[in-house]
């Protein structure tokens, strides 16, 4: 039986109640910036996983464009709306508390420190985990094994005694299995497809009811 269960945050335990592409467009608009696409944002996010704030992500996005918009202003507008619109998936708070009786329970989330810590504060989840790490505080983000090793160390367990639960094939499933953890993939309605590297898969809407039983079947 695994000793620790580590969760991804976005789309695994909590979801934005409004479309992120819209929030991005509005934040850029409020700060007088150009139209930014979600795909461009995700590219820039991947290049900036160990930052303190989202400002370098937006600075990256604005580079070479004709605009006087302040990346910090766009980052602030984006952060406020994202944190406000984030909601836990049904039942996950009770599930996290229950899992705490049998396992060490952790969180490892990719992104800037301010952005991800704000989300945890808005959700009221600062103390729900035995350890919670934001890659902005670390040497490297997921899928780098150092990120997974850091959360295992914070939980005082070996990576091989840990299970990671997340929705992204590369960052979560590959990252965790490459670091020696088992991975359980959370499946979203519109993809991506189930990744064979995961030991199990769970539909996003059923995570709270299905995950405890799945964990019970693991060696
Ligand atoms: Mg995620």
Characterization of this structure:
- The protein contains nine helices and eight strands.
- The protein is an alpha/beta fold and about 220 residues long.
- The protein has two domains: about 140 residues, Rossmann fold, CATH 3.40.50; about 70 residues.
- Helix 5 runs parallel beside helix 9.
- The longest helix is centred in the middle third of the chain and has 15 residues.
- The mean pLDDT is about 95.
- The site of magnesium ion has 7 residues, from loops.
- Magnesium ion (MG) binds next to loops.
Cofactors, ions, other ligands: magnesium ion
Average pLDDT reading: 95
CATH architecture of the largest domain: 3-Layer(aba) Sandwich
Number of domains: 2
Oligomer: single chain
The fold-level CATH name of the largest domain is Rossmann fold
Roughly how many Å apart are the termini? 5 Å
Low-confidence stretches: none
Strand order of the largest sheet: 5-4-1-6-7-8
Query: CATH superfamily assignment of the largest domain?
Result: HAD superfamily/HAD-like
Strand content: 15-25%
> Order of helices and strands, N to C?
EEHHHHEHEHEHEHEEH
- Tally of extended strands? 8
Judged by helices, strands and strand pairing, the structural class is: alpha/beta
Calculate Rg over CA atoms: 17 Å
Largest sheet: 6 strands, parallel
Count of DSSP-assigned helices: 9
- Specify the helix fraction band: 40-55%
